[in-house]
């Protein structure tokens, strides 16, 4: 039975999972969720994710939500397919992948999320982006990127000289961030820039990026 992913192609969290599915070269069905009609807050969807958020993965009779949990599940279950995103054959490399997955979740994402939200989402709600919030988080993101710049001086990717979920998890928000006026935060750091150009040019993500049209007119 094919995997079913409930979400939309422009969603950051949905595209995080889509990139993983493509890296693993898996067949799946993307089941659109109509957010504008509030489908994600209605009983059928809430039975899959009680928090009413996308994405949700269905693997037969097994249902999973939270995008990072889904990518870890997919990478583990289908470890023999496509790219080894968790470094199953090396305990230390696998541990480093987990470290940088945590860094993305707890250091990188909280800062970049607010910038992307203010720039792209606030106007959709009829609000003016809060520049104070943007500036505060640009400062936070810059400090995180300084750490990345130093790390990437010694390795091609975050966990080592191999692509992994640690890198993949950065794709969605960074893709949208690079469409904001503050892309120089990435481009001014040569090692970070080279890393971003590398991971964003992977065939699996290029397939996903075609549907990431949020904010386009």
Please provide a written account of the structure.
With 217 residues, the protein is an alpha+beta fold. Helices cover 52% and strands 8% of the residues. It has helices at residues 12-23, 43-46, 67-77, 91-121, 131-151, 165-168, 171-177, 184-187, 190-200, 203-209; strands at residues 3-7, 28-32, 56-59, 62-65. It has a four-stranded mixed beta sheet, with helices on one face. Helix 1 runs parallel beside helix 3, helix 1 packs antiparallel against helix 10 (203-209) and helix 4 (91-121) packs antiparallel against helix 5 (131-151).
Structural class, by secondary structure, is: alpha+beta
- Rg, rounded, reads 17 Å
Looking across the biggest beta sheet, what order are the strands in? 2-1-3-4
* Order of secondary-structure elements: EHEHEEHHHHHHHH
Percent strand equals 5-15%
- As residue ranges, the low-confidence spans are none
What is the β-strand count?
4
Tell me roughly what share of residues is in helical segments.
Answer: 40-55%
User: Taking all residues together, what is the mean pLDDT?
Assistant: 95
Shape: globular
**Tally the helices: what do you get?**
10
């Amino acid at each position: 039975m094919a995997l079913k992913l409930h979400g939309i192609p422009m969603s950051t969290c949905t595209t995080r999972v889509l990139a993983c599915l493509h890296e693993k070269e898996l067949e799946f069905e993307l089941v659109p969720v109509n957010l504008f009609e509030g489908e994600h807050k209605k009983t059928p969807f809430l039975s899959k994710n009680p928090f009413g958020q996308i994405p949700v993965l269905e693997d037969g009779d097994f249902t999973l939500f939270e995008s990072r949990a889904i990518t870890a599940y997919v990478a583990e279950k289908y470890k023999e397919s496509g790219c080894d995103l968790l470094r199953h054959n090396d305990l230390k490399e696998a541990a480093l992948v987990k470290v940088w997955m945590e860094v993305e979740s707890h250091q990188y994402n909280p800062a970049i999320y607010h910038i992307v939200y203010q720039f792209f989402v606030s106007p959709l709600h009829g609000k003016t982006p809060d520049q104070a919030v943007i500036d505060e988080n640009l400062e936070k993101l810059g400090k995180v990127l300084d750490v990345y710049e130093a790390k990437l001086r010694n390795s091609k990717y975050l966990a080592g000289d191999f692509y992994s979920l640690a890198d993949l998890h950065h794709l969605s928000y960074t893709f949208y961030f690079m469409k904001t006026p503050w892309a120089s935060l990435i481009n001014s750091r040569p090692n970070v820039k080279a890393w971003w150009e590398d991971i964003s040019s992977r065939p699996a993500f290029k397939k996903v990026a075609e549907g990431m049209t949020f904010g386009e007119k």
